[in-house]
C-alpha cells in the first residue's frame, strides 16, 4: 500500500474506531450484534461485520454508512468479560463454591460462564458437545436447571434459553442457574422432527434411560443422573415442533408429596399460560424429562410456546417472561410476579388418523370444540374423502399438526378436555 | 335389537337419509367433505362421518345436530360418477383416442379419470404408486402436464393440483390435462425437507436422470421419457419448503427457439406473480425438471407460492388461479386472463452461511435490500455473534430460510437482483 493511501486508510480506521467506542455498547463491541444493542451502532452510522478470533485477540469488521470500511481490534476481551461477570471457562473446572454440576463447570460467585460440555467416556455421546450457560449468584439459594431443544426444531425455547442466559445478571441471582439451550444436539442442524437422528427415537420418551442402552437411552441416563438430579428445580422449554402449532400451555405431574407438589404448582402458575395439563400419575406418555425428574425429587415442569419452526418474537418473549416469573417465584430473582394461574384441563386427548392421506384441519389452536364436532377430514392423494375426524371430547384445541401429510395412526391434534 | 327400538332406529335412518338427499350436493354425498360443499350438509343440520367402502357399496356415517346418528348407504357410486364425467380406471387402460401417456391412462373424451400409476419393471420404483388425475377434453388440443410435490413438503402446490383436478370440468377442456399432485412419493409421508429419502438427493437436481442410476436418477429418467416429453406444456408447482418462506415468483428458461420461448414467456406472464427468474442457459442449479423439460422441447415453467409447510388458503388459491390463467392462455380453457407480467430479476443470488449456528434473519420476503446491507446474523449456541450476513447484491428478497438451525455453508435466503 502506498504512503498516502496507507495514511488515508489509517485515518479511516481511527475515525471508525472512535465512532464505535462512542456507542453505548462500548463494553463489548460484539454486543452490537444483539438486536437490542445493534441500535447503538446503527445510530453511529456503523454496520458490524463478522467477528474473527485469533487467540486472545478479536477483530470485528465495521462499515460506515458512507461506505468506508475498517476493523475494530478488540484486544482486551478477557479483562472486559471479567468486568461484566462473564468468562469462558474450560470444561470440568470449578470456579465457585458450588462445585461442578456433572460435566458443567460453575463459575465463581457473581459470575457467568458459557461454553460446551460432553459426556466423557462414551464415544457415541462424545461425538457431540452441548452448549451451556451457568450463572452463579453471590447469595446461596436453589439450583435451577433450564433446558430446551429436546425436540430439536422447537426453536422458541432454544432462543429464549440463550436470551435468558445472556440477560440475567449473575449478581442478581440467589443460588445457581444452569441453562442447556439445545438438548437434542444430533438433531439440531439436521432439523429433525420429533426424534433424535442417532437412533430415530423421541428423546422425551426415554427417561430415565439406561446406562448401556441406545444413544438416546444413554443420553437420558447421563443427563438425568449427572445433571438433572443435582438440581432443585427444572424447567424444560418446548414449542410446537416443525409441523405443529399450539396455544401456550404448561404440563406438570404431581407426586403425592404435598410440599414438593405445592412448589411445582407455584412454578406452573407463575409461567402465565392460559392452560395447564396435569399428567396422570401413571403417565400416558411415559419417559418425559419433566415427569421423571419430578419422580426423582426435582420440582419440574414443561412449558410450551410457539411452533412451526418459526422464531416468532412474541413466542420467544413469552418463554423469557414465563421463566423469569418462575425464577422470581422461587426467589432466585427478585421482583413481583404478575401471572394468572392457568385453567387445568381434565385430560390431554391426542387425536390420530385412522388412514394415511392429506389432513385438512378445520379448527384453530385455542378454539373450543364439542365432543363429536367435525374437526377435520382426510382425503387420499387425488382428493377423495376417506375419513372425517371428529372431536373425542369437549374442550380446547391445545395443538394441531400443520403438515397435511399424515400416515395411518399419525398425530392430528390434541384437545384439552374441559 | 328389540322390535320397537328397531322401528325407531329405522325411522331415524329414513329421516337422516331424506335430509341428506335434500342437500345441494346430492349427486355425491362424499362431496360433503369438500370444504365448499360441506356447507350444504351443515345447513341440513348434518355432520358427515368416515366413509367405508365394501366393493361397489359405500357407507357414510351421518350425525344430526340433535345427536341422532345413522348411515347413508350409497349404492350407485359408479353410475353417479359416470354421470359427473368421472370414473376410476385401472392403470394402463386407455379410454380415449389420445392413448395412455406412459403409465397414465387417459379417459374417454369429455371424462375425468383418477387413480394411481407406477413405473413397472423397476422394483425400487414399483414400491410406490403415484396419484394422477387425467382430464380428456371433447375437442382436440394440446396436452398439459401439471406436477407438484417434487419437494414433498411444498403442500400448497400439491393441494392446488388436487383442487384443479377435481374442479376443472372435462367437457370444458380443449386437449388433455394430466395432473400428478405428488412427485416425491417416498418423501411425502416422511415430510422430507428438500430431498427424497430413498437416496437423500434433491429430485429437482437430477434431471434428465439415468436409466441405471440411483433411485432418484431412475425416477427422473422414467418421468421425463415416459410422461413429460409426451406433453406439449408442463407446469411444476412449488412452494417454500418446510423451512422456507417466499414471495410468489415464477422461473423459466429460454431455449433460443423464438416460437417456443414466446409460449414459455406467455405462460410465465399469465401466472400472475410479481417476480420472475429467467435462469441462465448454462444453469446455475442444473437438473431441474422445468429446465430439462424445456430443453427436451416442452414449454415448461416452475411456479412458487406459499411455504413453511402450511396450507394457507391464499397461497393455494394463487396456484389454482395462476395455473387456470396459464390453461386459458394456452386455449385449453376458455376465458379472459387478467394477470400482470412479472418483473424479471437480473440474477437469483442464494446467500449461504460461512459458519454453523443460529441464524437470525433481519429481512422479510418481498423486502428491498441494498448491496452490503446487514440482512441477518449468526450466533453460536450460547448466543455469541459469529457472523454478520450482508446482501451480496441490491434487489428483492425472494425467499428466506425460516429455521434458525444452519450448517456451515447452509442456505439462508435468496435475493433477486434488480
Entry summary:
With 418 residues, chain A is an alpha/beta fold.
Q: How does CATH name the architecture of the largest domain in chain A?
A: 3-Layer(aba) Sandwich
Work out the helix count of chain A: 10
C-alpha Rg of chain A (nearest Å) = 24 Å
Provide the CATH topology of the largest domain in chain A.
Answer: Aminopeptidase
CA(first)-CA(last) distance of chain A: 76 Å
Which strand order do you get reading across the main beta sheet of chain A? 4-5-6-8-7-9-13-11-12-14
Low-confidence stretches of chain A: 20-41, 50-62, 65-96
Question: Looking at the structure, what is the overall shape of chain A?
Answer: globular
Return the domain count of chain A.
3
Describe the structure.
Two copies of one chain form a homodimer. Chain A has 418 residues and is an alpha/beta fold. Chain A has three domains: 79 residues, no CATH class; 260 residues, 3-Layer(aba) Sandwich (Aminopeptidase), CATH 3.40.630.10; 72 residues, RNA polymerase II/Efflux pump adaptor protein, barrel-sandwich hybrid domain (OB fold (Dihydrolipoamide Acetyltransferase, E2P)). In chain A, 26% of the residues lie in helices and 30% in strands. Chain A has ten helices and 22 strands. Chain A has a ten-stranded mixed beta sheet with strand order 4-5-6-8-7-9-13-11-12-14, with helices on both faces. In chain A, strands 10, 15, 17, 20 and 22 form a five-stranded antiparallel beta sheet that branches. In chain A, strand 2 and strand 3 form a beta hairpin. In chain A, helix 8 packs antiparallel against helix 10. The first copy, chain A, is globular and about 65 Å long. About 16% of the residues of chain A have low confidence.
